[in-house]
Amino acid sequence: MAQPAGGEAGGGGDADLGRYRSPLVSRYSSPEMAFNFSEAKKFSTWRRLWLYLARGERMLGLPITEEQLQEMESQLENIDYKMAAEEEKKLRHDVMAHVHTFAHCCPKAAAIIHLGATSCYVGDNTDLIVLRDGFDILLPKLARVISRLAGFAQEHAAHPTLGFTHYQPAQLTTVGKRCCLWIQDLCMDLRNLERARSELRFRGVKGTTGTQASFLQLFEGDHSKVEELDRLVTEMAGFQQTYMVTGQTYSRKVDIDSVAVLSSLGASVHKICTDIRLLANLKEMEEPFEKEQIGSSAMPYKRNPMRSERCCSLARHLMMLVLDPLQTAAVQWFERTLDDSANRRICLPEAFLTADVILSTLQNITEGLVIYPKVIERHIRQELPFMATENIIMAMVKAGGNRQDCHERIRVLSQQAAAVVKQEGGDNDLMSRVRSDPYFSPIHGQLQLLLDPSSFIGCAPQQVVRFLEQEVGPMLVRYASQMEGKVELEL
């Protein structure tokens, strides 16, 4: 559905500055996601659903004319919002306000608009359409992030870097292998979003408490026509299936499924961007930094990872939003209660808008990630001698030495080198001590080889290649036509 003119996110005149506007729309989100949750999309979809209902009812024999249908179709986008607001203020009912507003511009069709339906026919079915379209916006964005990271991982598949456990130096890994840990989480998210999208069904035409009693009455007790109407409207709305049983609403567990996968995505993005922030502190990796960007108003030298910080900040909000649909589903009394409405008006749009923001921002980050090999090498040099002690012991044993004697000698030298690093702030001089100790003379010629970082990365490069080829590549095939385009952040 095309976005109407003037529908850009964050637009508005000076009068808007005197009212709160959600930063998700005014500052961050994409125009397409902002429009997906807009009033224009919502109310024009209501009208479209009324048209589908009337069209289906005519096909099944109710006295509705083609002229009435054409009149409705001609007015789908011609919504008098001022009149609708006045009607809602008077009626205290948003759906009936829009029924009256639609009827006002469709005098010939007025009598058959909303025939047999309840408010949730337009409300819930529109929500399901919007959720479906929201996933369709997010999925290619997530695929693009995975694709960008896959290119980065492939480029650095064999580039040794210091690994960390407990944020303490551990065995070496590679830059590409670490990136694959991020990609794997995002691939799980891609599968989760695809599943949630594919499992969405339509509420269809179910009536006031889900029994379809009003439609059975319209069709004079013909159950087959009631079922066929449900099928026709569902098909016109672009869905393959309906929820076979509902109360007045579709089960609010559907909202849990939708928001849960987005909250899970938020956790993945938070972890990735936290890693980037920590690596930025180590000066091993940086997100894009604009030529005129200011990192601090007081400290001109700073290059803060503000994009990653923004992702973490918004991801925390996204992770918390799943609590809303969980509690809403838990307190839906019997066939429905209205305490879901106000909550869902907030949490569902915010979940998709927030996911949209963090994916766009993460794409921008991944399209400009840089590493600093010399810094990475320096950190490896500082820690690798300690990690190489076992290799040194094994080499000495092969040269005829005694393992226990060698272990004690290397232990003493390691403690001396550690004291230089920790107490004096010096560089790790363990290898200099080994080279100057006659005991290790049988392997002095091997030390350079024993300290080659590439001998400490195990199967990391091969793992990267296999993972990208066998898992990531096939997942991205269906999005191949949507991979183009870079993200430029305005703020």
Would you tell me the structural class of the helices and strands? mainly alpha
Find the count of extended strands (DSSP E, 2+ residues): 4
Using the alpha-carbon principal axes, give the shape: elongated
Q: Helix coverage percent of residues?
A: 55-70%
Main sheet record: 2 strands, antiparallel
| Tally of separate domains | 3
- The largest sheet has its strands arranged as 1-2
Order of H and E elements: HHHHHHHEEHHHHEHHHEHHHHHH
Question: Could you characterize what this model shows?
Answer:
This protein has 491 residues and is mainly alpha-helical. It folds into three domains: 83 residues, Fumarase/aspartase (N-terminal domain) (Fumarase C, Chain B, domain 1), CATH 1.10.275.10; 238 residues, Fumarase/aspartase (Central domain) (Fumarase C, Chain A, domain 2); 62 residues, Ribonucleotide Reductase Protein R1, domain 1 (Orthogonal Bundle). Helices cover 61% and strands 3% of the residues. It has 20 helices and four strands. The strands form two sheets. The chain has a two-stranded antiparallel sheet. A two-stranded antiparallel ribbon has the order 3-4. Helix 11 runs antiparallel to helix 13 and helix 11 packs parallel to helix 14. The longest helix has 37 residues. The two termini are 27 Å apart.
